[in-house]
Amino acid sequence: IPMPKLRKTLGSADHPTVQKLMRLIETQSKSTLSAWAVQYVEGRDLPILIEHGADPSPFSRAIAGVRQHLGGKLSLQQLKPLLKEAAGAARGASDPIVQASARAIATAVAVIQTPTNALGFCFYSAAAFAYHRAGVAASPETYEKLADEELEAILSSLRAVAVAEETNPVKIDWNC
User: Fold this and answer.
1) What is the per-residue pLDDT across 90-125, written as a single tens digit (0 to 9) for each?
2) What is the value of pTM for the model shown?
3) d(Cα 63, Cα 108) in Å, to the nearest integer?
4) What is the dihedral sign for C-alpha 130, 133, 137, 138?
């Protein structure tokens, strides 16, 4: 029996939870979104990556680099090689579960440069969570249900750190 083709991401821009995420992302600053994204993937996607035997070091270095940048200890120029290394490591992953979690992390650490990644990493993280929980041979319906669960968890995590009346919200053109 051939393996079902797994999607790289799960979720879509017209999903009600994703719509709520988009609206909330639009009210936050780049630094708030960046700090939230790295915190989320460090707690959710990094453990999945490690559990599936992938080398976490390029991802851990990028997460640490973003935190140093947000703390004023690392310039964006100094951070860029770490972001590039994480993106390269994500491209090199072959296992679909590792690939999804690696891409979630690589996308999340780049939020500081590309605010729309605050939404992009959510789709990868939803896929990583679904494939990790259900394995790589489950039904599309199972994946969709698990992805919905994960998108709700992501929305809750952003709500928990969102700054009310943010004075410097990101300017985003979603293109989706």
Assistant:
1) 999 989 999 999 999 999 999 999 999 999 999 999
2) 0.95
3) 9
4) negative
